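User: Could you check the structure of this?
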Amino acid sequence: MHKRLSEISNLLIAPFKAVLSSENLEKAAELSKAFVELAKTLQEQGKDISFLKPLIEQSGSLLGVLCSPEVQVISAGLPFVPFAIALLKYYREKHQTEPTLEVCVAMIAQAAYLENCQEIVSSYPAIIWNNYDITHITQAVNKLNDFELDYQAASNAIACFHKSELAKAFNTVLSARLKVQNTPSADIDILTQRIAWDTHRYILKACIESSDALPQLKPTFGEWQQEAERIKQSLEKWTEPSQEAKTFNVDDQKLHWEIYDLLGNGGLTPEIVKYFMNLLVNSDQFRPVELFKRLENFYVCWCDGEFIDAPPENFPQKKMRLLQEKGIKQGQRQIDIYAGLNVMILLLELHRYGQKQNNEIKKQMTFYPSGKLQKNSRTDLLLRIMNYNDCVQLETFNTVVRLFLSGANLSGANLSGVYLKDADLSGVKLTLKFS
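Assistant: Sure, the predicted C-alpha cells are below.
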C-alpha cells in the first residue's frame, strides 16, 4: 500500500496533539507509557512540553520542520528520534495494533535525518540558519509531502538509506533550504551526501532503541545482528590453523576474495563494528595477532592496487557481477574502495585492542594507516588513498572512516589539504619523528 509522507505524519501526530495539550509532560506520561522516555529526554535537557510545539504543529511531513521559517532547527536541539519513537508507541497503544513497516520507516527515517542534519550542519558556522521567505522552497516541500512510500521503498531505506529514493527526496528539500541561505553549491553537495550517508547510523540506533516495542522493526535489527555475527565468524575462520605448520585453513587467495565478498558493498557503521568486536574479543576463537597480520597483508596489497589492477575476472569485478545478478548496482572501483576502507577500520579496531595488551602484542599489532615513517620524509600513502577514494565520490574516506580514527598512529603522515571535519581524532599520534 502506498501512503504519502504527509498522510503518515498526520496519522501519528494528530492524536498526539490532544494528549500533549496537557500543561506538562509528566501528566502526559501518566496518560501513556509512550511518553515516558520522551519526558525523560526533555527533563534531562531542562525543557518543558512547549519545546515540542514546532513538531506537534506540523501539518505536512515531519521533515517540513526543516523549512519552517519560525524554527531554528539547527540550534534548537529538538529531540527528533525520541519524538518519533513516542509517536509510534502511542499509535500502538491507541490502536492496539502494530504500525506498518511503511509508517515506522517514514517516521524513523525523517527523525533520523533531522537529528543527523542538526548535528552536522551546526558544525558549519558559515551557514547562517535564519528566517527567510518560505515561498522559495514551497515546491520542494510539497513534493516531499506527496512522496509515496510503499513496502519496497521502506525496505530499501532501511537496507541502504543513502541509495534510497527516500534519501533523494529528503536531500532535495535540504538542498532547497540551503540554497535560500546562499550556501555554495559545492558545500550543498557535500553536506547532502554526508547527511544521507550518516543517517543510516541514526536509523539503526533508533531501531535498536525501539525494537522491544515495535515488531515491524525487529527483522531489521535481527538482520543487523546476523550481519555482525557473520563478520565475527569470518574473522575467526580466517585465522583457523591448518594441520600443516604455520598455515591457515583459508589460504591468502581465498582470504582476499572473501574480504571483497564480505566487505565490498558499503561502509561499516560504528554500531555494527562495536557489536561484532565485542563478540570477537570474548570468543575462544579470537587470534588477534594472526588476524591483524593477515588483514595488514591484505591492506598493503590493496594500497598497491594489486586487486583492482589484476587481470579479469579480478575480485572487484567478480563482486560487481554477483551484485548485478541480484539487481544491485555497484561499480568495481566502489567495491575496491569499500573493501580497503573496511579492512582499514578492522585494523584500526585491532590496533586499539593491541595497544591495551602487553608490550610484545602491542608491538606486533601496531597499525600505520599511512605506512611506517620513512627517514627524513613524510609518508604519502594515506593521502593517496584519500585521493583515490574521492575520484569516485567526494568525502568517501571521511564519511566511511572518520568515526574510527581515535588512537590511530599517523606519525609522519602527509595530511596536507586533508578534510577530516568531525573525525574522531582523540588520542591520534600526529607528531613527525625522524630516526
